[in-house]
């Protein structure tokens, strides 16, 4: 059961049409940006994957496609053997019960005019769960996020709760349907550091007790290492590295992943750091460089990197890297 593939992503792509300038109109051009380009991976039941990369790399777009919140422009997503693009209305409703999103900002994720009780019951009404099950399912969700001792909060409004309490409520709302799969988009980025540890412990406990398959979207490698078994690094819409989290963090192979790991702050009296292994400026996603998309910033890049785009290839069991400079480790 644990080795059964729940989610199969095959050559997934998403392009967005940009607002045209006067010059584009006069030249009959329609500018586009490739937010996600030809991404493929699988997710097993109960497996947790972290998606890391800088802002604008396509992490959130990928997560929303996995939940069928936006439609891809290319490729295919298969969930439990079903093509998400071919679901009937009833099949999509069943998918909504099995796949949920944990929002980044708990202060915006809940309707300020709804009580916490109504927010928690809303998914059950929307997916037509029989009403005689509602009370039990909400109570179980509150236990999972360690809010069972605070039932008085149910008649409160979002502005009356702390950020940590709100994030637990948002997580409870995602879990109330007892899903098989969740996407958590920066689930602790809006919280104080002192509150994050409690939320991360809840996420780990939920992962272990419910056997959830999960995708955690984050730029925080500490979160990914704590919660996720496997890590995928994205850069300009493409996957550049994929492997077990421990290996990716302790021995990053792609130059971009190395830079991400090196950029993680380490508490120390001496706050001086070696320069990051990056050159050049931030790329324009509307006009990515030819060849390897990281070539303009990579200290190892040569003419070959700028002419050809490296394929994501397996360099060791369970590890894939898109870089001409990384030799096979097998």
The total of beta strands comes to 12
> Which structural class matches the secondary elements?
alpha/beta
- Can you tell me the CATH topology of the largest domain? Rossmann fold
* Average pLDDT score: 88
CATH architectural grouping of the largest domain? 3-Layer(aba) Sandwich
Low-confidence stretches: none
Query: Radius of gyration over alpha carbons?
Result: 21 Å
- By CATH, the superfamily of the largest domain comes out as P-loop containing nucleotide triphosphate hydrolases
Task: Report, as a whole number of angstroms, the end-to-end distance.
Answer: 29 Å
Tally of helical runs:
12
Shape by Cα distribution:
globular
Largest sheet: 8 strands, mixed
What top-tier CATH class of the largest domain fits best?
Alpha Beta
Helix content: 25-40%
Strand content: 15-25%
List the domain count as a whole number: 2
Topology order in helix (H) and strand (E) letters: EHEEHEEHEHHHHEHEHEEHHHEE
List the strand order in the largest sheet: 6-7-8-3-9-10-12-11
Quick overview:
With 330 residues, this protein is an alpha/beta fold. The protein has 12 helices and 12 strands.
Topology record:
Layout: E1 5-17, H1 22-26, E2 32-44, E3 48-52, H2 59-66, E4 74-79, E5 82-83, H3 89-98, E6 99-102, H4 106-109, H5 116-126, H6 134-144, H7 163-175, E7 181-185, H8 193-210, E8 213-217, H9 221-227, E9 230-235, E10 238-244, H10 245-250, H11 255-262, H12 303-307, E11 313-316, E12 319-321
Parallel strand pairs: 3-8, 3-9, 6-7, 7-8
Antiparallel strand pairs: 1-2, 1-4, 4-5, 9-10, 10-12, 11-12
Helix pairs in contact: 5-7, 6-7, 7-8
């Amino acid at each position: 059961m644990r080795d059964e593939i729940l989610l199969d992503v095959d050559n997934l792509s998403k392009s967005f049409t940009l607002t045209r300038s006067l010059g584009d109109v006069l030249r009959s051009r329609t500018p586009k940006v490739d937010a996600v380009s030809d991404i493929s991976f699988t997710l097993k039941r109960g497996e947790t994957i972290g998606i890391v990369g800088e802002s604008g790399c396509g992490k959130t777009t990928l997560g929303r496609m996995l939940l069928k919140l936006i439609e891809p422009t290319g490729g295919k997503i298969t969930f439990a053997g079903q093509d998400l693009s071919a679901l009937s209305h009833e099949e999509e409703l069943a998918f909504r019960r099995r796949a949920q999103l944990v929002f980044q900002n708990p202060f915006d994720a809940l309707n300020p005019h709804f009580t916490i009780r109504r927010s928690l019951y809303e998914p059950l009404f929307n997916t037509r769960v029989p009403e005689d099950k509602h009370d039990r399912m909400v109570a179980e969700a509150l236990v999972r996020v360690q809010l069972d001792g605070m039932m008085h909060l149910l008649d409160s409004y979002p502005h009356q709760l702390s950020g940590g309490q709100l994030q637990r409520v948002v997580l409870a709302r995602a879990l109330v349907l007892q899903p098989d799969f969740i996407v958590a988009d920066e689930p602790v980025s809006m919280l104080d550091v002192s509150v994050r540890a409690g939320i991360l412990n809840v996420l780990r406990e939920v992962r272990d007790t419910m056997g959830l398959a999960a995708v955690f979207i984050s730029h925080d490698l500490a979160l990914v290492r704590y919660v996720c078994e496997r890590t995928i690094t994205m850069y300009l819409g493409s996957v550049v590295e994929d492997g077990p989290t421990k290996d990716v963090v302790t021995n990053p192979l792609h130059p971009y992943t190395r830079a991400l790991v090196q950029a993680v702050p380490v508490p120390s009296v001496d706050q001086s750091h070696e320069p990051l292994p990056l050159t050049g400026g931030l790329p324009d996603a509307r006009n990515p460089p030819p060849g390897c998309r990281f070539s303009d910033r990579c200290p190892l890049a040569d003419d070959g990197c700028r002419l050809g785009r490296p394929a994501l290839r397996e360099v060791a069991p369970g590890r894939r890297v898109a870089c001409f400079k990384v030799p096979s480790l097998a």
